[in-house]
Amino acid sequence: MSRQDKRQRGFTLLEVLVALTILGLGLASLLIAYSGSLRLTQRAQDQTVAATLARSKLDETLASKNADIKGDEAEEIYNGTRYTYRITSTPYPLLDEGLYQRLPDAPRLEVIQIDVYWGSEDRPQRYQLLNYHRLPRRPAAASGTAPPPAPPTT
């Protein structure tokens, strides 16, 4: 075997170093992408839990006959994360108060707002759910006349 044949049978040290460097850079970029996807997955899970909690509290608010739950503020812990929520309810005027007095059957709305907070103090997260809810009609003022009869049902 000649000297030239021995050289062409293997890789040089420089070729091995270049290949290892390329392999190392590829693995490092894969690890960075994987850790980024884990962070995004955790963030999506936190958002989902917050949205589910807000929707659950909205359902409780709408189902309650008395308004005890409105103005509620509390904490819940899920999967090691602390979620704080606050429920507020404010009237949403569609008309001027003068028009409401002239049109007692005019619809009245309220805005139910549910805020859910979580995360660290330096990076707080928030999810907000708004719901426009029609209030029941106000009872008719006693005017001495009977209300009109209900329409017949078939």
From TrEMBL:
Protein name (database record): Prepilin-type N-terminal cleavage/methylation domain-containing protein
Transmembrane annotation, as ranges: 12-34
Keywords for this protein: Cell inner membrane, Cell membrane, Membrane, Methylation, Transmembrane, Transmembrane helix
Superkingdom of origin: Bacteria
Main location: membrane
Recorded family membership: Belongs to the GSP I family.
InterPro entries in the record: N_methyl_site, Pilin-like, T2SS_protein-GspI
Subcellular location: Cell inner membrane
Membrane topology: Single-pass membrane protein
